[in-house]
Amino acid sequence: MYRVLSATLISLFACIGLMPFLVRLLRIRGIGQFIREDGPEFHLSKEGTPTMGGALIVLATVLAYLLNSITPTLGVGWALCFVALSLGALGFTDDLMKLRQRRSRGLSGKQKLFWQLLVSLALAWTATRCFGVDTRIYLFRVGDVLGDLGPFYYLLVFLMVVGASNAVNLTDGLDGLASGSFALVMTAYILISFIQFRNHAFIYPHLRGSLDVAVFCGASMGSCIGFLWWNAPPARIFMGDTGSLALGGILAAVAIFTKTELLLLVLGGLFVLEALSVIAQVASFKTTRRRVLRMAPLHHHFELSGWSEFTVLVRFWIVAGICVGLGFIIFYIDYVGRL
Fold first, then answer.
1. In which band, very low, low, confident or very high, does the pLDDT at 140 lie, cut at 50, 70 and 90?
2. DSSP 136
3. For the chain, does the N or the C end have fewer beta carbons within 10 angstroms?
4. How many domains are contained in the chain?
5. Distance between CA 53 and CA 68 in Å, rounded?
6. Using CA atoms, how far apart are residues 335 and 88, in angstroms rounded to an integer?
7. So what's the pLDDT on residue 32?
8. Which residues lie closer than 8 Å to 180 by C-beta, 6 or more apart?
9. What is the mean pLDDT of residues 261-269?
10. What is the model's pLDDT at position 285?
11. What does the pLDDT read at residue 34?
12. Are 238 and 231 in contact (CB under 8 A)?
């Protein structure tokens, strides 16, 4: 467990210590965030705030993991690094295009989906063929088997990668919301992967690298907390798509390697709510020409309803914490009851 703590502290202090230099560099180069004109008016004051801070989150996470990896030859940690770096690179490209075109939209949806498809295929293939992850779906990991998806497991992995990365991206519209909520989810996954290591690492093939998963979760949690130091309201830097797409991919990959695909819906409940709010808004407007929310994602609806940004942030963190706590309780009761 000391390696998990070490990885957490290394990434934490790396982000806290190096972020001011990145902020200064981004300001010198004029790399700032574009704000949607149709969003809350008070968000327009954030125009020009340095963005792409997610690059440091990803690099600090990978570095902290590599310095504390337990069994790198198993490759599970390398797979997590691949997902973080590849989706981080996708988000980086998207952010660069926004800056060059001087607008709030970068890559098209189809372009993002194509690259997310490639990442998900690589992740699914390595997980099932190299690391022993089976294609069955469990009701919260060690509960009853709901069914064996077989080759359709690749489709599930694709939906998880796309869904998680886009959900975190949608949540990243309020200072500190995405990074703080992600850190809470990673706290649960540190405990989940460590429990799996202590009890079943030598029984199930896909759990042999579970301690490395815990180390990687600790590294990513530390990076987000360190980033939150500078991203708390009023934010001095934003993570951009560079960070949000990478963090979403990490969520999906960790859920796959811990076989908690369904439990992720509970643990990441806040991200799910944010994504569903956008889906509901779009579906309602296209079918009835009416909006169910003042503005999507959900956090903007409450801002336009009169809640202050800080109030929305704290209350949404509370919701995220409740979801994480509930998810871990479900996992622990089910897991311990079957030991």
1. low
2. E
3. C
4. 1
5. 23
6. 33
7. 66
8. 224, 228, 313, 317, 320
9. 94
10. 86
11. 59
12. yes
Asked whether residue 123 is assigned to any structural domain, the reply reads: no
Mapped onto helix, strand or coil, the DSSP state of residue 137 is strand
Hey, what amino acid is at 147? G
Q: What is the DSSP string of 140-181?
A: SSSS-EEEE-GGGHHHHHHHHHHHHHHHHHHHTTSTTHHHHH
Q: What mean pLDDT, rounded, does the chain reach?
A: 87
Residue-range definition of the domain harbouring residue 302: 2-107+135-337
Q: Which residues contact 65 (CB under 8 A, 6 or more apart)?
A: 7, 77, 80, 81, 212, 215, 216, 219
pLDDT tens track for 6-47: 999 999 999 999 999 999 998 887 776 655 555 555 555 566
Report the distance separating Cα 78 and Cα 73, nearest Å.
9
Per-residue pLDDT, averaged over 244-259, amounts to 95
Torsion angle of C-alpha atoms 249, 254, 260, 266, degrees rounded to 10: -60
- How many C-beta atoms lie closer than 10 Å to residue 193's C-beta? 28
Nearest to residue 233, comparing CAs of 299, 188, 295, 296?
Answer: 299
Q: How far apart are CA 164 and CA 166, in angstroms?
A: 6
With CA atoms as reference, report the closest residue to 192 among 274, 244, 268: 268
**pTM exceeds 0.85:** yes
Q: Is residue 130 part of a domain?
A: no
Residue 122 pLDDT grade (very low, low, confident, very high; cuts 50, 70, 90): very high
pLDDT at 143 (0 to 100): 52
Does 168 fall in a domain? yes
Domain-embedded: residue 210: yes
Measured from the Cβ of residue 255, the count of other Cβ atoms closer than 10 Å reads: 24
